[in-house]
Structures
1.
Amino acid sequence: MFKLIAWKGLAVLVVASLALAACGTGAATTTAPTQPPQPTAPPAETGGFTSKPSGKTTAAGFECPEPQPRMEVQSKDVNLFVWTEYIPQDIIDCFQLVYGITVNRDEYSSNEEMYAKISKGNTNYDLVQPTDFIVSLMIRQGLLEKLDQSKLTIMDNFDSNYLNFAFDPNNEYTLPYQAGTDAIVVNTDKVKNVPQSWADLWKPEYAGKMVFLDDSRAVIGLTLLTLGYDVNTKDPKQLDEAKAKLAELVPNVKLFDSDSPKTALIAGDADLGMTWTGEAFLAQQEVPSIQYVYPTEGAILWQDNYAIPTGAPHLDAAYAWLNYSMQPDLFWLMLRDFPYTNPSKAALEYAKTSQMSIEDANGNDTTPAKLYEAYFNSPITNTPPQAIQNGHRIDDVGDALPLYDRIWQEVKGGS
Amino acid sequence: MNILKRLRDKNSRRGLWLISPTLLWMIGLLIIPLILVVITSLGQRDPDGNVIYTFSVNNYLRLIGYSFNAPCGDTPPPCFDDLYITILWRSLVLAFQTTVLVILVGYPLAYYVARAPARWRNLLLFLILIPLWTNFVIRVYAWIMILRSQGVINNLLEAVWPVILPVYTVLYNLILSPLSAFLPLHLSAPGAFQPLEMLYTPGAVLVGMLYEFLPFMILPMYTSLEKIEPALYEAAADLGASAARTFWRVTLPLSAPGIVAGTILVFIPVMGTFIVSDILGGRQVILVGNLIQRQFLDARDPTFGSAASIILMVMTLIVTIFYTRRFGFGEEIASA
Amino acid sequence: MARLYDHHTPMSNRRSPWLTLVSLLVYAFLYAPIAVLMVYAFNSSRTNIVFEGLVNQGPCGPFYWFCRLSNNHEVLSAAGNTLTIALTSTIASTIIGTMAALALQRYHFPAKTFSEVSLYIPIVIPEIVMGIGILVLFSALFRWLNGALSLEGDRRLALGLGTVIVSHIAFSIPFVTLVVRARLHGFDKAVEEAAMDLGANEWITFWRVTLPMIAPGVLSGAMLAFTLSLDDFVITFFTNGPGSTTLPIYIYGLLRRIITPEVNALSTVWILIVLIALLVTQWLQNAEDPFRAVRILARAFSPLFQWLRPGR
């Protein structure tokens, strides 16, 4: 008798769970978010930005500038969901000191990871940093809020080359953050024959010595390039060929790392591989024999952007963060900590002319002007026009996405 | 009618009241989630990574590797692609290897502590507890520092290389070089020091696992070894048994419950692990845990990930049930 | 230590020197990584790959990395979260688990077998399966509730401290129940009956007689729940959200960036805390009145709890 009740109970549970699952898939109705307050000052001019001190200093000794303009914020927290190793600690500390808002930072190391968490709809982030190709997917899925341009004071700071891309016309949803390339990185002390093309990486002499980004689109993309195909192909036959070719490469890769690939290069666990601009630049600082080679088939060009996910709980804090962290007298810190290609003309101008004395990552004295010099003169951060022309951008492939996902899974799982 | 009568019984009511919060938690956070996972596993993935709730066993078929219309390498469809079976098998093998290693390495220590004089026993036990209570992410990180190309082991080897080199040269020329014609030994010719590539290999993952779970095995084994009366050893010795015989006929059988309990405490977590293989394996060693984690994070196929979770759970349950049927459940878990 | 040529100690008591050697090697194996961790916490090299000598920077000298740690708000908030979660889930799961143990050991009721089986499941399934399950549950539940109740902004239900605590309670209850049941197993009801004969009602009997007698078991269960929660990675990994980072998750996050000796400093501090906690536990276990000892401890630690309160 009891058993009957038990089975009925279980059936009720199953039905309830089904109902729950079914209800859960219905799109959540989005009501208009609470309007963040208007900034009181007019937008800053790009030329001749004057920094004002706020009187606060971070624990590392960096003097925080005053926010221009200072916005009125009610929220006590802001939740960032960002790439690992992408925001200077001084910027976070300054924001917390100057506004008194706690910064909660969660990190991811691939766009797919970020998309998976955001699309589930059970997290409360205020800002994310999607790369170009995933922005269109997120817009299509209704995962991003439209930006209120009147709240943003920094839009004029950006070089127009980084604005108005096809993935987000008129920058309705995103702001540029950093740009860069994926190319070959080599420790020329350890590797005698420096590879010149993506195809060279398949050579058996490099087996067991390579570090690759754990990035499915980039790695499959470069494989497609070696076969002469487009990085954004949707042709299943071409993708099958790429899968077979990639399957030959994967056993030769010592490790996949999108968190901090420079660590393996600096530590000597890997001698060459494929990585991003900033990682290569930082690795070169530690080990000068590390070089960045733009492959003959063409490097992969990308741009990371800031965006606000729908349902963000602290919109006012999000806008305050955007305006403050990308202010010219703060945004130049990227040159010191995470040197990628910087889309903010104003920040670069500020760095170029600033003579303030600061410490670089290794504790040596330098000035922002010197950092700018190094940035400008390096072919890593200042991508040569030839490389840009030859380069390829990854795009949303829509329906063909599952094909790419499966290739990645199957190729990495089967060694 | 029977139920209602039992409900009116004060004992039953009291019992039900006491168990109700537990039931609430277990049903809410265990049973319902598991049911949801099963339901999700029977769904399909749409091109953008969302779940379509249908009834389809495609995910399970994919796990077994049965392919309807796509070729498996050179074989035309329908065919079997052993990709995921390989991953499942790899996890089983690793779990098995870890368990065996942990027993072999841990048993001597457990025996030593169990037979130590009473005043030392607490201290020795305490020394085993400290690594156990240290956070396991920290312990995995420590192995990176030891195994990497410029890590502690390679630094030590480099330091003593001038001493080792002559010995190695002799060994190499006389024995190892001719041998490598028959065995797959990857040895570099004697000369300048070449760091051993230990990190980001399956071996590193195994060592990491061994280190993580060693205390989990030592404690139950110690508990049951400690219960063995010293008088039994004396009796065996009086009857003329050698040390080996005593071990085989007396110690080992009596410590079996501890070994069983330890195996359960080790085997199950190893089957589901993903952190150790992620960090020490360089994202190259893919176990079931990694597969599941990746499905939910990167590949955005929660249906496939759910199917893999169910298969993992079923496999673990089968092995556990089979094992406990044969060897008992081991009450030492409670005292561990 | 056993003497090598020992003709006086009976064979059964002689310990082989080989055994001692092997045991020492295993101890060395257990402690080598910990030693390496602690030594590198004093490394002067920021990239922390090779030990380049003792660090001597800033006002703290050799303890430079430890000082940086104390200024690191993220660590402190993670530590605060970890403690909050551990304490809350321990208290809740101990109470619930003890109730369950009493129910299962002494009463018969419908759903008894179901309860027993469902309490064994978390012990025998891999944590990742439970983590995934709970994630799927919360995703579906929150999406539905947020839509149905039109929750917005800060009031939106999302992964965070609450979901982590609830999940920790879920996996702790079976272990507490197991331990307390083991203790109840040999319990002699005669004492309870004597108390009731003397006029005590059921509640007083429980509080003044039963509970003190099973106290060691309950405390053991509580300690077990506390450890499980403190150390948990997998379940927290799938159920946490912004602002609810725990120390294990934070350390994992640090491992994903360039690893400075600060991580080692954090590890060393953790190991020392564990050492102290274990010593305290030993003292508690040997104390005659464990509850009084707990009260003394709580009073001693209250300034620490104030300091670590999240949101400082």
2.
Amino acid sequence: MSRPKPDFLAILRTLRKHGVDFIIVGGVAGVLHGAPLSTFDLDVVHSREPGNVDRLLKALEALDARYRTHADMSLKPGRSHLASTGHQLLMTEAGPLDLLGTIGKGHAYGDLVPQTTELDVGKGLKARVLDLAALIRIKAETAQEKDKAQLAILRRTLEEKSKK
Amino acid sequence: MPNRGDPEPDKFNAPSAQPTHSEDGVDLTLIRWMLSLTPAERLEVLQNNVRSILRLRGEQTET
């Protein structure tokens, strides 16, 4: 796999095609809500239910997903990795994909679903996206120095949206 | 009522009714522009930005 062409929509379409339950979080969620951010990877929180992990494995196979944290990118994610609360930093044929078992201080898929909205992300493809207020709150829980500028933009976006 | 020929007050020199930046320096005009788009269009903007940056870095030759 060399220089994969980043295509967020292609990754999302593959996840949906395989029936994977997931929530878009991170910078892409911010952008979908109207924040003028730039990000190179797609962050999603997936359901760690066994059936969903099986579907996710098939989707990752279709995307030729491998750990980008390994120099030769030969390691593929397995069932135990996806069932854990950890973060799987992957490279796919459609660009970087981060699969997050939990975010912030331990928020898992089931906790987050009530704080999501289903949006049309392109070409009629619907996907669950973490609400902007929840995104801000959870990001602030574990914010590092690098997150502060992004948090400011997300907060101002929420303010502007509330004026509409 | 102003006479014909009188300069229209505040048309060109008045500051915008809305601030362009927040107190913490965030460009609000970009936020307003993004909010005028649909979520799908916003994702397309991001996608195009990422590809442009990669092309500038010389990391990707395809479009």
